[in-house]
Structure formats: C-alpha cells, structure tokens
Design a protein that fits this description.
Blueprint (H helix, E strand, L loop, with lengths): L4 E2 L3 E9 L3 E8 L4 E8 L7 H15 L9 E7 L2 E7 L3 E3 H8 L4 H20 L2 E2 L8 E4 L4 E3 L6 E2 L20 H4 L6 H17 L9 H10 L5 H4 L5 H10 L11 H13 L5 H4 L33 H36 L7 E2 L8 H10 L3 E8 L8 E5 L5 E2 L4 E7 L5 E3 L8 H10 L3 E7 L9 E5 L5 E3 L3 E7 L8 E2 L8 H10 L3 E7 L8 E4 L4 E2 L4 E7 L16 E8 L7 E7 L2 E8 L6 E8 L2 E8 L2 E9 L2
Parallel strand pairs: 13-16, 18-21, 23-26
Antiparallel strand pairs: 1-2, 2-3, 3-4, 4-6, 5-6, 7-9, 8-11, 9-10, 12-15, 14-16, 17-20, 19-21, 22-25, 24-26, 27-30, 28-29, 28-31, 31-32
Length: 638
C-alpha cells in the first residue's frame, strides 16, 4: 500500500497503526501539501457487507463532528475495493501511553483532561452520536498538550428507538459499561461510564477490574464495586473519587445524566478541592438499595440483611436495637467531625482561595469583543458552534464556564454564537504573539495550524516571526495557516570535524555522520589505494549539519589500460525546485541503480538546489526526495 496514490491526491507514506477493522497510514495530500492520516478498511473485510456498512457509518458520523477536542475528518472515498477515510494527522501519544509513562496522573491534570474529553463528547452526544469505545487508547495527548478524542469506529447515530440486545458488544471489556457487558441498551450514559473508568485509571494507574478472561472482567463490571481511589492515591480529594464513582455507577439512573453535568462538577472541584463528596454525588433516591452509590469502601453485599424478616426473640431484638444505637452514635460522631473539619478548614484555609479567578461575562458580545475580554483575563475564546436564535446574529448566546463562576485557572471560555457559521475568515496579524495562544485562536476558528521553527536574532524564542497567508487575507474553514516560530538566536558553537584522510570512504562517512555532519563524495585519480579518502573540505571546527566533501581515490590513472580508459567526464548542472517544501529534505540522485549523490537541503534557505553531475555520453538520472522518486531526467554529456 505504501507508495500508492488514492483519489489522485493522497500519497501513502507509511503504516502508523492497525485496529480491528482498519489499517491507518500516514499520507501526504498533494493538492494541499499537508500530512494526513488515512484509515483503510482491511482487505479481508471488504467482502463483508456488514463491516463495510459499519465502516461507512463511522465515516458519516465522524464527518459531521467539528470540535477542537475531536480528531477532524477531511474526506471519505472509495477506490476499487478500497474504502478509506482521510483524517487530521495528530502528532502526540495516546492517553494510554501517557499513563504508562507517568505511572499515574496528578489529580488536577487528570480532572483537566477529563473536562476536555467531556467537551468533545458533548458535541457528539448533541448529535446523538455515541462513541461506544471510550478508552485511553482512543484519546490523544497532542505535542502541544491538547486532548483529542479519536476513532469513532463503533459510533452510531442513534434515534429514540432502543438498541437491540442482540447488537454486537464492541469495544474493550476493561472499559465496558454494565449495560454493554449485558448486551443491553446503550446510550450517552454508557460513554459516561467508560469515561469514569478512564478517570479511575488516570488517578490510580490501573483499571478498576481485571480478570483471566474477557467474560470474567465483564462480570465484574456488572457485579463488583471498585477499590477506593483514595486508598491507592491518598493525595486524591474525596470529591474527585466521588465524581469518578458517580460516573461509574452500575445503574444508569445513578450516573451523571450528561457529560456537561460531569464537567460542571469537575470545574467546581478545581475551584474547591475540599468539597464534600456528598455535594458532588447526588444519586437518585430509590427504594432499591442498589441505587445507592458507594463512595468510600463498603461492606460486601452478603453483609447486608436482605433476608425477609422472621420472628425473633426479644433478646435478639434487644441486641439488634443495641446494634442500631451503636451505629447511630457512630454516624452522629462522624457528622460532627465532618462539620468541624469543614468549619476549621474554612477558618484556616479559606483565605487561600483569594487567588481564584471570577469568570467574566461575554454574553451578548460579538466574537471580537469577547476575544478582547478573554485576552484581558489571559484566556482565549473557543467557539463550540453557531446556532439559530432570536438574538442578533453574531452575538454570544451561551458560555461555559458560566459568568460569575470562580475557577482555579481560566484558559478558555467556550461559547455558542447566534446565527449561521461564517464560511470566510479574515486572518489577524499574529506576528510577535506566542505560538500557543495564536494556535488556539486559529484552531477555534476551524483552521489548521502548521508550525515551522526558524532561528532568529531579533525575535524571542516561541514568538511568531511571520505567517502565511498574511494578515487580512480571507481564508475558508479547514484551510491551513503556517506560523513561523522563532527558535531564538542561532547557535554559534562549532564542533570539531573528525580527521578521516587515509581511511576508507565507508569508515570516514560513518564517523563524520555520527559526529552530526553531512558527507558529500567526490572521486579523483591518485596514487592512493582505490576507495581511500585523500582529502576533506573541512579541517577543524564547523556547525552541526555542515557538509563535508570527501575526495576519494579512484586509483592510479596510469594503471588503466588504453582499452579500459573511458572518455573524459564532463560536468552538467541539474536544478531541482524545492519551493513547495517547507522542511529540510533529503535529495538522492540515482543512475543505473547506483546512488551518485545524497545531500540534505533546507528549502527555506535554498529554494532551488543545483546538483553537479559528471559523466559521458547520455545518462538517465532519478531524483528522489525524502525517499520518493519525483523527477527522471536524461542528461547528454557530449
């Protein structure tokens, strides 16, 4: 598949992943000159109508979702028997890899990650799309720290009709909701349960239930209570455990009824980690004892007296009454201690919340005015959607967090704007701004951001030097904007180039490249043995990445018999256009299956590279750029 071009524009570069239904490739869109990810349905499944249908459902569902916390879908296509989806290529690691690397995630960071996931799922749930496979493997932590939900591979657009119990139970059993494990009705609250399991794993570093078989794990999802988070991670506030366990409630009516409600509680926890867990976990009251959510470790079910009442002796009743009195006294004591803890905690620590931030109101403002208000508060505006309303077009009709709420940190304010979404965007001038803030603003506008780093003596590191397209240019949603970001002053330090004269070319090339330099080979007749380096272009120090030309002996010219001598070689120049590339590329020139030149060139400094070719007669040369053959040129040296 590598090297194949789909749809006349997507060049497959390499395989980067594989799932149960599809293989994922890294590809280059030739039309827009950008890197994308392409998911291709496995060949052995193309004959299966059910799998093809499910694959198409994924494409249609995912293509309808546009949100900063969801991996974007650009295109859907079919070529012969190949069914494919073109998606945003995101550099980063999965949340699973992130958890494995850190062991467990600090609770504040885990809560913030969960809030971002909630934002993405809220957009999907709003369109009645259930992910059905929320797990750390399907959540990406990007190189900039953003969170993106991906692989709506088993998402289905739902209606008010009930999902049949005969539907396939899909996804990973460690993150199943109890209703999925039973093959029952699945709705938005199933995603909330799975997200609760993800929270549990972030906070403790392990999944709540394990077993020797998938069936054993599924039964635990249905029947067992997970071990207390706070026992495993004492630094985690009780209210965080409470929110996690409410998301993981066995009964759907006892869970959060929406991801928005979960996010609201998590925002409140960030504001005040000392919240009483009972203020977070507000489970419905029912005559059914199973409706109670257990936050702290609880006694096993067999210790609860569910046996129908029988006649007992007065002595037994007396003992039972004594037991109730003891329990009542213990509960009363705990309540008194809890109240005192809250009172003294407020007295001694309440003043520390003075640094919390009050969320400003942007209701009724235009996006431009709201961005000014957000900037004054060191935040950015995230546009979730445009919605028809009776308010003036272009004004904000909803915001989150809500105005007046006090939060520990305020990085962004998510808004809904009245009216239809504009298709044309006028770019602002980002020169001199921090890359991170400009990137967030552009992403919120629905644009793609390409980061190019350059050395600069005049612009501070991390600041934007220039942009393409330029300010005040009109672009469409989905277009790319390249931001050229300063790496700071150029590195003046030089390093010694290894002395390789007298060594074989292969040995010399290996030493020089290991030292961080680039080699270029030139051959010459000499009295030295064939293949021996007889001179080098740099003797002393040079910057890393500099090219060192090695002159290599072709042997003694006098040893060549007249019949073996060849006409004198001539030199021709081949010019290679690199203006369409933005990063350093490797240029390899091949003739007759032999590589005659290999060099790495920076297109921003050398948009046209001139290659010196030597030969006699007529030769055909192939130019490979980054391993891909781009040009075939016939050169006449006569």
């Amino acid at each position: 598949m590598v090297g194949k071009i789909l749809g006349g524009r997507y060049e497959i570069l390499e395989q980067i992943g594989k799932g149960g239904m599809a293989v994922v490739y890294k590809a280059r869109c030739r039309r827009l000159n950008r890197i994308v990810a392409i998911k291709i349905l496995r060949e052995d499944l193309t004959e299966n109508e059910e799998f093809v249908k499910r694959f198409n459902v994924e494409a249609q569902a995912a293509a309808s979702l546009t949100h900063p916390n969801i991996v974007s879908v650009y295109d859907v296509g079919k070529e012969g028997k190949i069914h494919y989806i073109v998606m945003e290529y995101v550099e980063g690691v999965t949340l699973k890899q992130y958890i494995e690397k850190k062991g467990r995630i600090p609770w504040r960071e885990a809560v913030s990650i969960t809030i971002e996931i909630c934002h993405g799922l809220a957009k999907a749930h709003e369109k009645h799309i259930i992910h059905r496979d929320i797990k750390p493997h399907n959540i990406i932590v990007t190189s900039t720290g953003a969170i993106k939900v991906t692989d709506f591979g088993i998402a289905r657009a739902t209606t008010t009709s009930t999902v049949s119990a005969s539907d396939d139970v899909l996804g990973s059993v460690h993150y199943f909701s109890p209703e999925q494990a039973r093959g029952g009705y699945v709705d938005e609250k199933s995603d909330i349960y799975s997200l609760g399991v993800v929270m549990y794993e972030m906070l403790t570093g392990k999944v709540p239930f394990t077993g020797d078989t998938p069936v054993a794990v599924a039964m635990k999802q249905i029947e067992e209570t997970p071990k207390s988070i706070c026992e495993q991670a004492p630094d985690v506030p009780q209210c965080v455990e409470g929110a996690t366990f409410k998301a993981m409630a066995k009964e759907t009516r006892c869970r959060y009824q929406s991801v928005g409600s979960l996010a609201d509680d998590l925002y409140a926890i960030l504001k005040n980690p000392n919240l009483d867990a009972s203020s977070v976990v507000n489970a419905p009251i029912s005559d059914d004892a199973d409706a109670t959510i257990k936050i702290a470790p609880v006694k096993k079910n067999e210790e609860i007296d569910d046996v129908p009442r029988r006649k007992v002796s007065k002595e037994a009743q007396s003992k039972k009454g004594d037991k109730k009195a003891v329990i009542f006294a213990m509960i009363t004591s705990l309540l008194i201690v809890g109240v005192l803890t809250v009172v003294f905690g407020f007295m001694f620590f309440g003043s520390q919340n003075s640094g919390n931030i009050a969320v400003p109101s942007v209701m009724g403002m235009t996006l431009e005015d709201a961005e000014k208000v957000a900037k004054e508060n060191n935040a950015v505006i995230e546009v979730l959607e445009y919605k028809e309303s009776d308010k003036e077009d272009g004004t904000i009709i909803e915001q989150s967090p809500k105005a007046g709420m006090t939060v520990a940190t305020l990085e962004k304010i998510s808004v809904v704007i009245s009216g239809k979404e504009p298709t044309e965007i006028t770019l602002s001038d980002y020169k001199g701004q921090d890359f991170s803030s400009a990137e967030k603003e552009l992403l919120n506008l629905g644009l793609k951001v390409i980061k190019e780093e350059e050395e600069s003596d005049s612009v501070d590191s991390g600041k934007i030097i220039r942009q393409n397209p330029s300010a005040k240019t009109k672009v469409e949603k989905g277009d790319s904007v390249t931001l050229y970001v300063s790496k700071g002053k150029s590195e003046e330090e030089e390093f010694m180039v290894p002395q390789v004269v007298g060594k074989s070319y292969d040995e010399a090339k290996s030493e020089i490249e290991a030292a961080g330099f680039i080699t270029e080979k030139v051959e010459k007749y000499s009295d030295k043995a064939m293949g021996t380096v007889i001179s080098q272009s740099i003797n002393g120090g040079a910057k890393k990445g500099s090219t060192v030309t090695l002159t290599v002996s072709k042997g003694s010219e006098s040893t060549q018999t007249p019949s073996a001598q060849t006409p004198s070689e001539k030199t021709k120049t081949l010019t290679i256009d690199l203006s369409s590339y933005s990063k350093p590329v490797e240029i390899k020139i091949v003739t007759g299956g032999r590589v005659v030149s290999t060099v790495t060139v920076d297109p921003t400094k050398t948009p046209e590279y001139s290659a010196k070719l030597k030969g006699t007669g007529t030769k055909t040369f192939e130019v490979h750029i980054d391993g891909v053959k781009q040009v075939t040129k016939t050169v006449n040296f006569d």
